[in-house]
Amino acid sequence: MKRLLIYILLICGYTLSAQDFHISQYDVLTLYNNPALTGVSRDGQPADYKFYLTHRSQWKSIGIKPFKTYSLAYDMKYKRLGIGALLLNNRSGLGNFNTLNFLVSGSYFIIKDPNSPHVLTTGIQIGLLNKSFDPQQYLYESQYNASTGMLDEGIVSGESYAHTSILKFDANLGIYYSYNEKEKKYHPFVGFSIYHITKPNESFTSTKSKMPMRFNFNPGCEFIVSDKVKLIPSILYMNQAKASEFNIGALGTYRIKEKNDIIYGINYRWKDAVIIHAGFRKDNILFRMSYDVNTSYLSAYTGNRGAFELSLVVSGKKGENPFKSIKSF
Fold first, then answer.
1. Higher-confidence residue: 216 or 207?
2. Residue 166 lies in domain
3. Distance between CA 226 and CA 37 in Å, rounded?
4. Which of 53, 61, 170, 183 is deepest in the core (most CB within 10 A)?
5. Is residue 328 part of a domain?
6. How many domains would you assign to the chain?
């Protein structure tokens, strides 16, 4: 019965909230946070280009196939432009529901004076959104068996779908500002972005169901505590239709030696999870991991266990081997 209840809760979450899946390390996968961050370095490590690879797994503790999110991204700077691409795939453990995004991303540096502490960019993403699922993997209200009090897969559901896979055009917009005067001990930043501005029809039936726009607001500030320590408190607020998310926390770095940092931090996703961060940077290679400790009502079924997330970022300069630092591990 507990397993059935979780199935119902998760399916309802997909059909009613209409919210994009979230990631805990939103500051790493910047192209999913704000198109205006294409080609922008926010970690104090100037680079001509970056490769991003992330993986997230969740809901394994409730006895079903875990929900998994994978991403592969690349961005670079070219004169006053940022150019990049993002491939993002999310696969649920229920009904093989799959969402695949491929987006090309571009930004324009409105302010890009090397002598100015101000950075102002605007960005756009365009691409394709694919959604697919296997209807045979789901149970429906029409399959309720009154004699057993359970849903019965032996009862014909009567459900029909015009499509089990759809492909739609998608587009996103964003703007970003930061203040980075070297003599100051604080460097504030703020970003705002809008996703799904085309409101693509995501229905698998003949009835239209437009995907609601997602609004992201991300302010924060880097504080230089000492020559070795930095703290970066930040907020991410997301709103999509009637669903919203408020994430507040801080990351810290401790410098062991030049370009070698230990990374740590904690976030709280309101009424959902406490997120613990850890990682390191060695030269041009950044490795991060995080774990979500579930604090929502679902913790009664998960035992407070949540999502595990890994990310790898490799940056480089033109003409240099981006993987040269691996040899010194």
1. 216
2. 2-322
3. 27
4. 170
5. no
6. 1
